[in-house]
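**Fold tokens**
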Amino acid sequence: MSARTQPTRAARTPVQQAALLVGAVFLLVGILGFIPGITTDYDTMEFASHDSGAELLGIFQISILHNLVHLAFGVAGLALARTASGARTYLLAGGAIYLVLWLYGLIIGHDSDANFVPLNTADDWLHFVLGIGMIALGTLLTRRPATASRRM
């Protein structure tokens, strides 16, 4: 087959690249949450409870459910990055979800049974940064350049 007849793969748009990167990071974080050593107090990890004492990197409180959510969010990012519109939707909707999680973490008590994910203060503020960052990426990487209208 010559170079001319080989099928070409369309280049990814910047928003697709961003969604792919964000999805890959979430996938990696989900995997790392199941690795003792990277996750401190691994033996205290609960399925879903504020009593889970496990922390990713010794900072972010996690549970089995929390890790599974990261894995699912990562897979969604990789899948939706196939198209520019899917990537934009992933970043905008995902960012909105993370801002809701940030608010949830601020409103509920960290020792409350309602904190089933679980979340701690470090998680709360990371969710805020992720939410703002994802929405910014989804918005800025899909902006259309302004065109000047000419009057004749």
User: Anything to note?
Assistant: The chain has a mean pLDDT of 89.
